[in-house]
Amino acid sequence: LAVALALPSVALENGLARTPPMGWMSWERFRCNVDCQADPRNCISEQLFFEMADRLAEDGWRELGYEYVNIDDCWSAKQRDEAGQLVPDPKRFPSGIRALADYVHARGLKLGIYADLGVFTCGGYPGTMLEHVTQDAQTFAAWGVDMLKLDGCYSTAEEQAKGYPEMARALNATGRPIVYSCSWPAYQGGLPPKVNYTILAEICNLWRNYDDIQDSWDSVLSIVDWFFTNQDVLQPAAGPGHWNDPDMLIIGNFGLSYEQSRSQMALWTVMAAPLLMSTDLRTISLSAKEILQNRLMIQINQDPLGIQGRRIVKEKSHIEVFLRPLSQAASALVFFSRRTDMPFRYTTSLAKLHFPEDAVYEVQDVYVGKVVGTLKTADNFSVVINPSGVVMWYLRPMALRAQPWPVIRQQAP
């Protein structure tokens, strides 16, 4: 029993993902498109990842922290080789994964890869059954991989309970620092008693709790609803080295309006979520790029305290308020409108939002980028929020009595 309890903690101390990982991932935008003859520009191939690495390195993404280039499903050949090893599809990845990793590393970036703890991956490619866990971990390390996403299609609850901790141990045993992203809780409904978040945080650096995101506002809202309805369970589980993952950012694709795109970015930031874009960086619009490259937003997302935010107000007017405590007694506030009719004027005060008494804050509008004034806790103020949109503030205390946030973070009014 002592050995069983001790083993998972090896993963917790891998020292990685002290802030939520940032980067790019292929799945939501490019799926399992393997027809490189008909669609060479958009199929899952080494060329796609070479080009995305170039964009991250040359278009200002890398300097902001977007450092992972993550391969998702459908990269491998349909069978393992004679030695039982996973191999990339020889036509679509003729240079091999090691060469791709070298290319990515040469640009100051990191490479992520996908596997599945089961007979097959979700896309029908060779899975990582229990007998292959150690071998696959060694293969990924030898290739120079920096992050592993381990999915859970075609596996049982019992296999997952054995395999996810086993992969954590196997990755650590390679000696290579590899961020470990688990899909385990998503396959178990995401909630206790089936999911033990204390154990999970000792095994994985980040984990998918809920359904795959799709390119639609309805999908974003369903994820937001689930995460904040269950925030009492989820919020304490997150922190440096172990994060809840509500799935990819779909900003820059086809399903979100401008206001909805701003909302996804703000809500993912307040959730302390990994910022893994899944869009075509070769053709991304200027407006989408500005949302994703907002420096203050990224600073808030990457706050070293790593406290996940909470929904603290849910009004009958379909306005919701979210709070994320930050280092140096600062905080982020998001005012979010679920309305679909017209801009709404919402009036409240920091006192109503349970901020400390007798404090004064400098208020910076995260999307405008400018300081909009100072605010005492007791002052009433109004914000005008567009339909499906947000107003996001960064509040920095100018005069604050000694006590920062631990009390507020635990209990919504």
Automatic annotation (TrEMBL):
CDD domains: GH27 (cd14792). Its main location: other. It catalyses: Cleavage of non-reducing alpha-(1->3)-N-acetylgalactosamine residues from human blood group A and AB mucin glycoproteins, Forssman hapten and blood group A lacto series glycolipids; a neolactoside IV(3)-alpha-GalNAc,IV(2)-alpha-Fuc-nLc4Cer(d18:0) + H2O = a neolactoside IV(2)-alpha-Fuc-nLc4Cer(d18:0) + N-acetyl-alpha-D-galactosamine; a neolactoside IV(3)-alpha-GalNAc,IV(2)-alpha-Fuc-nLc4Cer(d18:1(4E)) + H2O = a neolactoside IV(2)-alpha-Fuc-nLc4Cer(d18:1(4E)) + N-acetyl-alpha-D-galactosamine; a globoside IV3GalNAc-Gb4Cer + H2O = N-acetyl-alpha-D-galactosamine + a globoside Gb4Cer. PANTHER family: ALPHA-GALACTOSIDASE/ALPHA-N-ACETYLGALACTOSAMINIDASE (PTHR11452), ALPHA-N-ACETYLGALACTOSAMINIDASE (PTHR11452:SF25). One of its GO terms (molecular function) is alpha-N-acetylgalactosaminidase activity. Removes terminal alpha-N-acetylgalactosamine residues from glycolipids and glycopeptides. Required for the breakdown of glycolipids. Its EC number is 3.2.1.-. It is an enzyme of class 3 (hydrolase). Residues 306-389 form the Alpha galactosidase A C-terminal domain. Pfam families: Melibiase_2, Melibiase_2_C. This is Alpha-galactosidase. It is found in: Lysosome. InterPro entries: Aldolase_TIM (IPR013785), GH (IPR017853), Glyco_hydro_27 (IPR002241), Glyco_hydro_27/36_CS (IPR000111), Glyco_hydro_b (IPR013780), Melibiase/NAGA_C (IPR035373). One of its GO terms (cellular component) is membrane. The keyword GTP-binding does not apply. It comes from Certhia brachydactyla. The gene is Naga. It comes from the Eukaryota. Keywords: Disulfide bond, Glycoprotein, Glycosidase, Hydrolase, Lipid metabolism, Lysosome. Homodimer.
